[in-house]
Write a structure and sequence with these properties.
- The protein is elongated.
- It is built from two helices and two strands.
- Strands 1-2 form a two-stranded antiparallel ribbon.
- Helices cover about 45% and strands about 15% of the residues.
- By secondary structure, it is of the alpha+beta class.
- The chain starts with 5 loop residues before the first strand and ends in a 13-residue tail after the last helix.
- A hairpin with a 2-residue loop joins β1 and β2.
């Protein structure tokens, strides 16, 4: 990842990093995506031995037809 960062030192030690706002937002999005991935993996790990229902069956059970944007749920 190429970044345009300016480092500010205090007493000869690196103290702050300043970067353009768009780069900050890109880094923030990457971190949020990574945190979401970690949460997903934790959730999936907790359901390894639990029974599952195929998506097709779920859709059939709640009477949503393929391509439909709304359901018949009342």
């Amino acid at each position: 990842m190429d970044m345009n960062v300016q480092v500010i030192k205090k007493n000869g030690e690196k103290e702050f990093a300043i970067l353009p706002y768009n780069e900050f937002m890109r880094m923030k999005q990457i971190l949020e995506d990574y945190e979401d991935l970690i949460d997903l993996r934790k959730a999936k790990a907790g359901t390894v031995n639990e029974p599952s229902v195929p998506f097709k069956n779920v859709m059939k059970n709640i009477k949503i037809k393929k391509g439909s944007r709304s359901s018949n749920i009342k």
